[in-house]
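Please decode residue identities from the backbone states below.
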């Protein structure tokens, strides 16, 4: 977990709840064991909504569609688990998420749908929620 924590910290992503069994995380590594990418999500209490999080690519590993593949992996896994809608916070990567079908969303609506998630609890408790940009899209199960 320490390697992932440092990796996500280096790319300025939220660390809250990474060690929780409720947060599903996947790590991709290169041949020497260094983390090249990560992806994950956390479901709402009712399982209908997924908060996509921890989608990151190491600068040395950036290549065509790698980030997209990581994001789609999490989206497909959340849909397979029964979620019908994906949500996320992103102030810097809106264009990336729009290419994957996300549209701007009301951050308070996101917070209501995913009130029990670690990231929403952190952002609500610290007042950071008011500075965040929310995105959403429907999910399709395969």
């Amino acid at each position: 977990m320490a390697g992932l924590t440092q990796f996500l910290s280096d790319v300025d992503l939220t660390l809250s709840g990474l060690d929780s069994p409720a947060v599903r995380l996947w790590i991709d590594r290169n041949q020497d064991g260094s983390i090249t990418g990560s992806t994950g999500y956390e479901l709402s209490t009712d399982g209908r909504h997924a908060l996509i999080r921890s989608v990151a690519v190491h600068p040395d590993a950036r290549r065509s569609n790698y980030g997209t593949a990581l994001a789609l992996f999490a989206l497909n896994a959340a849909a397979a688990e029964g979620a019908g809608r994906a949500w996320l916070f992103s102030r810097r990567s809106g264009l990336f998420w729009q290419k994957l079908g996300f549209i701007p969303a009301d951050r308070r609506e996101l917070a209501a749908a995913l009130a029990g998630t670690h990231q929403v609890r952190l952002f609500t408790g610290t007042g950071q929620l008011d500075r965040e940009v929310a995105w959403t899209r429907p999910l399709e199960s395969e």
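Observation: The mean pLDDT is 91.
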